[in-house]
Amino acid sequence: MSAEATNPAPSRRRGRPRIDLRRLGRAALLGPGGRDRLPDAISHVADAHRAHHPDADLAVLHRAYVLAESSHRGQFRKSGEPYITHPLAVTLILAELGAETTTLTASLLHDTVEDTDLTLDQVREQFGDEVCYLVDGVTKLEKVDYGAAAEPETFRKMLVATGNDVRVMSIKLADRLHNMRTLGVMRPEKQARIAKVTRDVLIPLAERLGVQALKTELEDLVFAILHPAEYEQTRALIADNATAGDALAAIADDVRSVLREAGITAEVLVRPRHFVSVHRVRLKRGELRGPDFGRLLVLVGEDADCYGVLGELHTCFTPVISEFKDFIAAPKFNLYQSLHTAVASPDGAVAEVLIRTHQMHKVAEAGVVALGNPYAPVEGAEDGEDGVRADPTRPGWLSRLLEWQQATPDPDTFWTSLRADLAQDGEITVFRSDGGTLALPGGATCVDAAYAQYGEAAHACVGARVNGRLTSLGTVLSDGDTVQLLLAEPDASQDAASGPSPDWLDHASTPAARIAITGWLAAHPEEAKPPATGPRALTTGPSSSEGAAAEPGECTPAGSRTPSPAVADAVVADLPDAAVRLARCCTPVPPDTVTGFAVRGGNVTVHRAECPAVRRMEALGRAPVAVRWGDTSECRVTLVAESFGRPRLLADLTEAIATAGAAIVSATVEPPSEQRVRHTYTLQLPDAALLPVLMRAMRDVAGVYDVSRAQHQHATRAH
After folding, report:
1. In terms of Cα–Cα distance, which of 296, 297, 313, 298 is closest to 265?
2. Whole-angstrom Cα distance, residue 245 to residue 403?
3. What is the value of pTM for the model shown?
4. Number of separate helices (H) and strands (E) present in the chain
5. Is 162's pLDDT higher than 90?
6. Is 261 a catalytic residue?
7. What span, in angstroms and rounded, lies between the C-alpha atoms of 693 and 235?
8. 114, 230, 456, 527: which one is catalytic?
9. What is the pLDDT of residues 469-497, one digit of tens each?
10. Which of 197, 211, 241, 319 is 20 to 30 A from 413 via CA?
């Protein structure tokens, strides 16, 4: 089965003649043309290149073609075509996208070192270091040397090379596109394997580099191979709605009239959707109408004109506000800029509209390829942070990828992590507390931000503030958030540094974070044990179940049923011979305003005036008993400490309590939840005046972010 029968036809520029690769192959076999002109076989490449770069020197392309043709002479593709047709087709794809001469030269030679006797040294000698680097970057590693690891290690090599020169990946994407176009000659199982790698790795890379023209065609080709039934349904749907473009054409005419009357010079085009786009819209909207099979593209000269067009459309048509997006003020991470909106025609049909300048459109289609040679010296250009050139072809996602791949020597781990990384859609920018920024994938959490900012030092992270509010490390970040990451102070007395717990892996979405956490846990297996289960992981002191059953609204008193002398002397109640208890729910201390209630057994329970239990007792009609503080200053209080989990936290807290002069009557530590730990301490103080000092000392313990007086809510039980 031919490639044309298996795959959708590639998109071509309107007005350019169809290129016959077999004819080009025959021309290639005839050798170069006359001395003063390019061979006929690359005349199409020359025309496409000059359309974007009128002053380009084609002599180097001539030499590259002659070398590639002579090197590949006698080699044939599985389709039977001379092999030279493949580098020619790849080069033509890049030429039509606007690639500069160096990229096209390397593209013509990209398979010579891999498949012929030509060496990198020979390429460098004839074409220089740049071309040699690009050819080396896309040259596959030998399966003889790497075995099953050859494919992942080849991609690792290409990505590292891309980090230094993004044109490496441009050539690889064009190479894969032509191979996908002609994949029909392969066995079905090999087609499926190549299509899956294209789907999981190459298409996301094309998206991240902004090369939409390649990405959309690759999507259609993969769709045809991996989902043939859905592809055939979509193909039939498009064929059955061949006149669907008429509806959009009519709306386009109306838009042209509106803009002409407004004095805005604009080009209005009907842009048909590609196969995968139609399939997605059908799944989203169900039955499709004429305008759903395409979108309107409005091209203008200046950025300000984009907003002028938007204003006219929203004034003269009914806008669908939910469809409006401004990617000019806030460009996508892959350089994409455009205004997106949708307007409804009088008959209710909705047309999506893209508004951009001609330059934005060029970048939207070709991405980094449209930048020309981004590494050419620019007069007056300044280097970025740490001496690295501030250039848009080294975006945050690529820098992160290059960093974490160094920590994954195992090819299987690298391959799995790469696919997981590329599967994440979109990118967000968050602001650091020091004024810097972090570029993170969509869905990233505070854990991911910590490792992106601090690397392995993030093992000591104990919490975060997002937009000024304390939050857990598992909090998902949004674009524009401000993140302050809290690190524990280093403690020389600890044998091992503070580190992450296993549940951090549940909140880590970036490979860099997951690899670092997994590595630390592997090096500290004792820290990887799961936390204790149940309502309490640690409890000391008397049980809260001791003593008599509580009255409705009453809370179990602090300590045992028999009050200590200090507690008995602390409060005086206007009820003769009554035993006085301090309520454990609010543990009042001098000079708190207090009130009491008589409970079963002739005792009086004393609450702080603002305790919720007071309102419940009053609602039940219970009369308060007047109480007042006695002469003793000794008191008992229950404090709740909220903290981020870390090693030695309990020891440090109890040491702070002891240093402040308080005695621990009982303590409860609940199991960690999202790295947050709740400690409840009932403490005996020799003097109530020490309470503020004690609470400050507890708050100063690393990892503790709040200490408060206990204020429990208790359900009222029926009589």
Report:
1. 298
2. 47
3. 0.65
4. 27, 22
5. no
6. no
7. 75
8. 114
9. 877 788 889 888 899 888 876 554 444 44
10. 211
